[in-house]
Write a structure and sequence with these properties.
This protein has 321 residues and is mainly α. It has 3 domains: 2-95; 107-202, no CATH class; 207-320, no CATH class. It has helices spanning 9-33, 36-64, 70-95, 98-104, 106-122, 126-138, 143-177, 181-194, 204-228, 232-245, 248-251, 255-278, 282-295, 300-320, and strands at 2-3, 6-7. A hairpin with a 2-residue loop joins β1 (2-3) and β2. α1 (9-33) packs antiparallel against α2 and α2 runs antiparallel to α3.
């Protein structure tokens, strides 16, 4: 085997031959079970064998021609012995079953698994976290720890969901306040679909409908009071707002009051127009005349004003200059 501290060629061939066979076996098994880890181990073993063999052979030749190189030979022998031990360790792992290797590595895998669960909680990937919790309980047997993680996930999920629902409801209330009923109803439906397990979403559509009804009743009451008290300008503004929110059937009961308000508004504008013309306040006359044309386009008054509006605007322009 050795001569004067130098490894014999047969011993070197045995070690490197075993290493090459082992590397090929590991890589082949990796291909069979489709394991990247096994394939990588085979490649690394083969690379170690290929790269150290020429060095070993060269140093042996050098040591054979020089008896004073025994120290170098001892170093090479130590390295080869270490390589042989590594190969034997790999060989022992090869003959172990997957279950046996899992038992040997269970503490390390448990640590990695717990870390992965904590990362899923941080990323709010609840379902992925629960899958790993089942793995921790059923595969590794840490059932008590798995239940603690399950409770932690459920609590974090509940709190996060509640915050998201609360924020969504704040947005919904903003749409209700702006009286955009179509968008508010769509948002209520979306919240109910996305967070259907949350008790906070119960009755959101009714919330929108109730707010809409309250707003319509308030508009109607303000309109009737303004009409009764001859606050015509305010009544007209309310009438325009009601037109956006009331259906034709709902508006029918206010038709007669609306006609009276519109008639008074037209008469008031007519009086204002005549006074402005009489006082030769051409700017005011032009503005009021334009309002009558826009707001009451089919009235006889609007027709009369159309015939004189250009002249009024010309006079207002000449005064401005």
């Amino acid at each position: 085997m050795e001569h004067d501290g130098i490894l014999s060629p047969s011993w070197i061939a045995a070690i490197y031959g075993s290493a090459a066979v082992l590397a090929a076996t590991v890589a082949l098994r990796g291909l069979m079970i489709e394991s990247d880890q096994w394939i990588l181990a085979g490649i690394i073993t083969m690379l170690l064998t290929i790269t150290t063999l020429p060095i070993c052979i060269g140093l042996r030749s050098q040591s054979s021609g020089n008896t004073e190189s025994s120290i170098e030979s001892d170093r090479i022998r130590t390295q080869l012995k270490h390589l042989n031990e590594t190969i034997e360790s790999l060989n022992e792992n090869l003959v172990l079953s997957d279950d046996a290797r899992r038992v040997l590595n269970r503490r390390k895998e448990r640590t990695l698994l717990c870390k992965a669960i904590d990362e899923d909680i941080t990323l709010e990937d609840w379902d992925a976290g629960l899958v790993l919790v089942r793995e921790l309980a059923e595969r590794f047997g840490y059932r008590e720890e798995a239940e603690e993680f399950r409770a932690k996930i459920n609590a974090a999920r509940s709190m996060t969901t509640q915050n998201k629902v609360s924020q969504a409801i704040v947005q919904l209330d903003s749409l209700i306040s702006s009286h955009t009923w179509g968008e508010a109803m769509n948002e209520a439906a979306r919240i109910s679909r996305v967070y259907h397990d949350s008790p906070l979403v119960d009755g959101l559509r009714h919330r929108v409908e109730a707010a809409k009804e309250r707003y319509k009743h308030d508009l109607e009451r303000q309109f009737l009071l303004a009409a009764q008290e001859d606050r015509i300008e305010q009544a007209m503004e309310l009438l325009k707002e009601m037109d956006h929110h009331l259906s034709e059937h709902e508006a029918e009961q206010f038709r007669e009051v609306a006609r009276g308000v519109i008639g008074k508004a037209r008469e008031n504008l007519g009086v204002q127009f005549k006074l402005a013309v009489h006082d030769k306040s051409w700017d005011q006359a032009a503005d009021v005349g334009q309002r009558i044309i826009v707001e009451f386009p089919n009235s006889r008054m609007a027709g009369e004003i159309r015939t004189m509006i250009d002249s009024i605007r010309t006079r207002a322009g000449s005064i401005t200059r």
